[in-house]
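The methods section describes the discrete structure representation at length, but only in general terms. What matters is that the chain and its backbone geometry are given together, residue for residue. Nothing conveys this as quickly as seeing an actual entry. For illustration, here is how one protein appears when written out as sequence plus structure tokens:
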Amino acid sequence: MVSKIIIGLLLIAFAVATSAGNFNEDFEITWGDGRAQILNDGQLLTLSLDKSSGSGFQSKNEYLFGKIDMQLKLVPGNSAGTVTAYYLSSLGDAHDEIDFEFLGNLSGDPYILHTNLFTQGKGNREQQFYLWFDPTKDFHTYSILWNPLSIIFSVDGTPIREFKNLESKGIPFPKNQAMRIYSSLWDADNWATRGGLVKTDWSQAPFTASYRNFNAEACVWTSSSGSSCSSNDSNSWLKQSLDATGEARIQWVQKNYMIYNYCTDTKRFPQGLPPECSQA
């Protein structure tokens, strides 16, 4: 099945590339009027938010499938009302998107890791987690594996969520739209912390999140190239799926740290849960 999907992708021009972490080479700052900075000869990137504006960046490349890692250190202290978003997305109303969003907190409360996934413009697939460490004290690795089989979200190598390719069951799967990597730090105090009850304390500004050690093994979209990704040994991630250990780790995370799962929210979906929920 995987080989058939990859052969089908030969109609699209893209090339395999491995990128290891120079922000000057791989990313561009897109907004923030100086609040985003690339430092240390491209080894560190920081985003800042104050009452006037947040900031953001995006990858120079677009990708169609990839194994993408980024280390983040989140806004410390009272970060209530802030959101640090790190995600893949295509463009347009019928876009695909794979989201990590980190919802700020009052000092001493846990950060919430909010995940979502859009296919052909349709989202509403939120799962939320507490983390088993303080994500503001040090850098931690947040990873997205996106291949023809599945999408796997991981934290420090521990998988926390999987969205399988269930196209055979009539469920759309992101496989045709190239996506860029985006990140932003912005004010969302109308919903981010306790549903908007806790507002941003601007006396704590500027709020700053830091990034390092970007790494991508990915199919880079290049419309002029005649090459493509293939399922050879160097691209083993294209065929990677969760083994029994990975499945057990997801179950451990979801049992101990998951605080919201759209697949159990019958009040939100009174006409029936989304079809992928019955296939999990």
Summary: The first helix runs from residue 2 to 8. Confidence is low (pLDDT under 50) at residues 1-14. The helical segments are 2-8, 23-26, 244-256.
